[in-house]
Amino acid sequence: MAPASQIEHWLHLPSLRLLTGIADHGSLSAAARAVGMEQSNASRSLRTLERRLGYTLITRSTRGSTLTAEGILTVEWARDVFDSLGKLVAGAAALATPADEELAICASMTVAEHLVPGWLTAFQARMPTVKTALRIMNSQQVIEAITSGQAPLGFVETPDIPAHLQSQTAWTDQIVVVAATGHPWANRQQPLTEAELARTPLVEREKGSGTRAFLDRAIGRQRSRPIVELNSNAAICQSVIAGMGPAVLSRLAVEGALKDGRLLEIPYEQPLERQLTAIWKGAGPAGAARDFLDIAAGR
């Protein structure tokens, strides 16, 4: 562990938030807007962070700013920092709130990033006195949390639901193959085949994630080893944009990058769909958990 004095020297949370914003939003200007920082201050903040860390985080050009390989890794570490801080804040809030007024929910990455925010807004409007604590993890970790009773309700992307848990489909998700605009697949005329996808190294989620489990099952054959494994969709998108290689992700996770042209969707020989699933242990969810499930299921 680094000495406390060293951590305090370079750890500046707004700068780290800005850096993760570049991965999430695709540019320094968009990241600065997202964190409420003037772009001139944002540029200065990143240069200070680079100087303190001792390496370059972004490549600056007339076309904008993109994360370097070191920047991508730093974003992953920064996300871990924010996850830990989020746990600290959520835990402190839980300790200060009566247990019967809180609903704990576990959700895998894609569900938490793209679906849960809307569900939470609707839930808070329906149940304003109930405090919701969200834990974000991969699908296998969600299954373990529900199994051990850490939360009454979870949402996963994996098709592999253990028999001891109950489940219900919450969302039908489209899975797409994406690549950078300069990738050889960008100009292909014929849909990508399963055999081609299987023998191509990809930028992938880590083992235990629902996206990884779906891909392993959908291909149905021995696949090439990943180019790299990352534990967030945003990091994968940024890596693909940087030209590291293609990826297979939820359309929810890449929709923005597809719309603005930073990524290309590569036609595939057959539709890829999966069910995003609510899971719980024992009888059906009760109380606030039941209401949240109703909202997620569109009832």
TrEMBL record:
GO molecular function: DNA-binding transcription factor activity; transcription cis-regulatory region binding
Domain of life of the organism encoding this protein: Bacteria
Keyword terms of this UniProt record: DNA-binding, Transcription, Transcription regulation
Domain HTH lysR-type: 22-68
InterPro entries: LysR_HTH_N (IPR000847), LysR_subst-bd (IPR005119), WH-like_DNA-bd_sf (IPR036388), WH_DNA-bd_sf (IPR036390)
SUPFAM superfamilies referenced in this protein's UniProt entry, alphabetically: Periplasmic binding protein-like II, Winged helix' DNA-binding domain
Gene3D superfamilies linked: Periplasmic binding protein-like II, Winged helix-like DNA-binding domain superfamily/Winged helix DNA-binding domain
Family listed: Belongs to the LysR transcriptional regulatory family.
Listed PANTHER family: HTH-TYPE TRANSCRIPTIONAL REGULATOR, HTH-TYPE TRANSCRIPTIONAL REGULATOR CYSL
Protein name in UniProt: LysR family transcriptional regulator
Lineage, uppermost ranks: Bacteria, Bacillati, Actinomycetota, Actinomycetes, Micrococcales
